[in-house]
Amino acid sequence: MRGLVISSFVLVAVALSAPAAPKAGDGLKKLPAEFRTALEKAEVLELLSVQPEKAEGKVDDAVGGFAVRKKAKLKAGDTREIALILLDEGLAEGTALAKCFTPRHAIRVAHDKKTYELLICFECSQVHLFEDGKPVGDPLPISKSPEDTYTRTIRNALK
Q: How many helical (H) and strand (E) elements, i.e. helices and strands, does the chain have?
């Protein structure tokens, strides 16, 4: 019986000392307010695949100098909501930035006559922000958790 009491006490102590799991919305809180508003209110969210090397010369469509290869337009609904939930989780779980930056994904939304872009490198755990093509703030850490779903969503949109 005494062993059971001690085991129960240890289990409770471990549970209380464990870091709390990120709550929904914690990741998006790391974004500037205007980015959060744009992501939540924009009618269309574009999920983009970008070239991992900066473009040389002029290109038709780019994010932060990285040429757009493919895009999936996500209107209000399940797929768009999943993309935002995954972004939220990835930002909430992100802890450290690598020194490299070879992005392969981006998110673009237009809201209130402005364009907001998040250039994402899951390999390097970084998100760079752009408003109307201009860099905003410092890079944010992101986990790799959204990567596979983002890649599949872009591929499926092109079928």
A: 4, 7
Which one-letter DSSP state was computed for residue 63?
Answer: E
Q: Are 65 and 119 in contact (CB under 8 A)?
A: no
Domains, the chain: 24-157 (3.30.1490)
Instruction: With beta carbons less than 8 A apart as the criterion, state whether 27 and 92 touch.
Output: yes
Q: Break the chain down into helix, strand, coil percent, rounded to 5.
A: 35, 30, 35
pTM: 0.82
pLDDT digits (tens, 9 = 90+) for 62-79: 999 999 999 999 887 777
Instruction: State whether the Cα torsion 129-45-63-70 is positive or negative.
Output: positive
Using CA atoms, how far apart are residues 51 and 105, in angstroms rounded to an integer? 9
What letter does residue 138 receive in the DSSP assignment? E
- Phi first, then psi: what are they for 13, rounded to 5°? -60, -40
3-class state of residue 95 by DSSP: coil
